[in-house]
Backbone:
């Protein structure tokens, strides 16, 4: 009688005795194929893999009893099961609850469609495995690991998303929020330390008033509790003589990218546009600032992004493009183009014209005003980083104001209760390490 075919999928980048135990049980059931989850699928549901796919594949190929190793491209098993049609899928029983439950349900349905069977073994929960995982996470938060990951993610995914964070708790929201949709998981790839939101959280206007020491303190608070790469809003970058020190400090901290805008003098937020006086820097000065920053940096991974304010300041498309090419020539690793129009057409036109001549330099956009375009379309037309720059601040503060008003109106807190997170949830929101 021919042997049954057995399939298991792994996302781990460290193999421990728990994995070996379940592999031993699986190989008793038949000829074992291991699916190794792709880097992209792991990065979007768990954390960036410390070991790339090829290395992880080799690890499994060298375990006795494993007949072959294939790539599983998505968290969903549907496609690979329909392709391989294994008689048996093996998994630990830990996915009966939680965010993996819909994946399990889909596996059962798919197996059912062709007469396959799911075999579950008790999940081996062991404190030492949790400790190993904690150590891996710690590694990811270390400056040398964190810094280069933005570049890797751009290369891997083509388009990465970042959301604003201005404190430890907003950093945790950026780090942990996960949505499961159509068999795929979605998370933000990176965090944006917005000057607007960092200033607003401190009750100050967005005019480069919050000094670098204070901005670095914010970064530190976020870094302490997260692992995702950080893009820092460096405003104008300040004086070139100061900017070179900022670059080195950010590099040392493990920040991945600084974005500086081509404005000079008293900086105001771009979303004011021409309603307030704002002065654009000369191409020559700004190029000199970029070049000095590139010369000052010590690692190869850190990125300096030049932000072009020509459309904000109504200087026209030609000016925006001339600046973009000049800034790339001066050494910028990426460019950001900004607009405060609701209509995305000027941003799309800029991207198309820039991409005619430059196919590789990453393009960053901040679709706060022009917010109707989906990420897939931005990717298709050649953008590489989409930053959601202020939505956590703009949703959080009205909720707090509303709670304060409700208490004042009622002279007690009862009426506010149904707007609040439960006491149990708030005290368990942040688990003790
Ligand atoms: C910020 O978030 O501080 C930015 C983006 O610089 S914007 O507010 O759109 O200018
Ligand atoms: Mg800003």
Residues:
């Amino acid at each position: 009688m021919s042997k049954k075919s057995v399939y298991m999928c792994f996302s781990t980048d460290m193999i421990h005795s728990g994995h070996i135990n379940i592999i031993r049980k699986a190989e008793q059931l038949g000829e074992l194929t291991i699916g190794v989850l792709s880097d992209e699928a792991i990065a979007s549901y768990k954390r960036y893999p410390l070991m790339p796919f090829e290395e992880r594949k080799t690890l499994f190929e060298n375990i006795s009893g494993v007949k072959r190793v294939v790539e599983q491209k998505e968290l969903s098993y549907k496609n690979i099961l329909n392709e391989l049609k294994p008689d048996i899928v093996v998994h630990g029983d830990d996915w009966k609850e939680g965010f993996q439950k819909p994946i399990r349900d889909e596996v059962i349905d798919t197996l059912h469609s062709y007469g396959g069977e799911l075999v579950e073994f008790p999940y081996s929960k062991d404190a030492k495995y949790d400790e190993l995982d904690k150590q891996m996470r710690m590694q990811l938060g270390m400056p040398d690991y964190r810094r280069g990951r933005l570049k890797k993610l751009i290369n891997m995914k083509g388009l990465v998303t970042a959301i604003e964070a201005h404190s430890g708790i907003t950093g945790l929201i950026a780090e942990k929020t996960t949505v499961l949709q159509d068999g795929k998981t979605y998370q933000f790839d990176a965090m944006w330390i917005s000057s607007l939101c960092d200033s607003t959280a401190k009750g100050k206007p967005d005019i480069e008033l919050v000094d670098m020491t204070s901005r670095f303190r914010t970064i530190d608070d976020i870094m302490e509790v997260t692992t995702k790469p950080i893009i820092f809003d460096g405003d104008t970058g300040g004086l070139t003589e100061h900017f070179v020190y900022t670059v080195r400090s950010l590099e040392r901290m493990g920040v991945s990218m600084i974005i500086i805008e081509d404005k000079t003098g008293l900086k105001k937020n771009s979303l004011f546009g021409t309603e307030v006086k704002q002065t654009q820097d000369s191409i020559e000065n700004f190029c000199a600032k970029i070049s000095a920053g590139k010369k000052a940096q010590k690692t190869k991974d850190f990125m300096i992004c030049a932000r072009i304010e020509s459309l904000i300041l109504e200087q026209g498309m030609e000016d925006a493009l001339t600046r973009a090419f000049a800034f790339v020539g001066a050494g910028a690793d990426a460019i950001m183009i900004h607009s405060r129009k609701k209509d995305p057409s000027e941003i799309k036109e800029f991207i198309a014209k820039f991409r005619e001549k430059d196919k590789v330099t990453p393009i960053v956009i901040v679709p706060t005003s022009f917010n109707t375009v989906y990420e897939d379309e931005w990717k298709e037309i050649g953008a590489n980083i989409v930053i959601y720059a202020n939505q956590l601040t703009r949703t959080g503060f009205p909720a707090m104001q509303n709670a304060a008003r409700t208490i004042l109106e009622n002279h007690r807190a009862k009426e506010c209760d149904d707007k609040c997170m439960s006491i149990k949830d708030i005290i368990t929101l942040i688990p003790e390490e």
Remarks:
- The chain has a mean pLDDT of 94.
- The chain has three domains: 5-129, 143-389, 395-429.
- Residues 194-196, 206, 233, 269-271, 366, 368, 389-390 surround sulfopyruvate (ligand 1) (CB under 6 Å).
